[in-house]
Specification:
By secondary structure, the protein is α/β, with parallel strands linked by helices. The chain has a single domain, classed as 3-Layer(aba) Sandwich (Rossmann fold). The protein is 40% helix and 14% strand. The longest helix is centred in the last third of the chain and has 18 residues. The termini are far apart.
């Protein structure tokens, strides 16, 4: 059985956090390709195949989404993702430094699958990413693509 591995979309404006995330995923030997969007607008460009992503195909296995970003923050990106039926089933993990209760509540209200506060400690951060990547990209069984939602 040949299974095509879907990509992991990382949306984060911190180059350091992106590098740590990719490194942690690589340490778990995840073979998934990683796409990086540096802000919310670029994340939507990837999902809607606009701009530099016009030739991309398929949807990511999971989106790791920061909240505090320029141009468009992660909460607005999550709102766009969950309002479009094409993206409703993509797992979205809020991976953020925000410990604000209003952010946490809003993300879950909008349909985030998980909310993970970035640990300040580098070792904890890497360990958390290893677990997240392995679970969402390998272990989690997504629903069938043809599933219909009742509104």
């Amino acid at each position: 059985m040949n299974v095509e591995l879907k990509r992991i979309l990382i949306v984060d404006d911190s180059q350091k956090d992106v590098e740590l995330t990719i490194s942690a995923l690589a340490e778990k030997n995840l073979a998934n390709d990683v796409i990086v969007a540096e802000d919310g607008e670029e994340a939507l460009d990837y999902l809607y195949r606009r701009g530099k992503f016009v030739n991309e195909n398929g949807y990511p296995a999971v989106i790791l989404l920061d909240i505090k970003m320029p141009k468009m923050d992660g909460i607005d990106v999550l709102r766009h993702i969950r309002s479009d039926p094409k993206f409703k089933l993509i797992p979205v993990i809020m991976l953020t430094s925000s410990r604000e209760e209003k952010d946490l509540a809003e993300c879950y209200k909008l349909g985030a699958n998980s909310y993970v506060v970035k640990p300040v400690d580098i070792v904890q951060f890497i360990d958390a990413l290893k677990v997240l990547g392995q679970y969402w990209a390998i272990i989690n069984q997504p629903p069938p693509a043809n599933i219909k939602f009742i509104n």
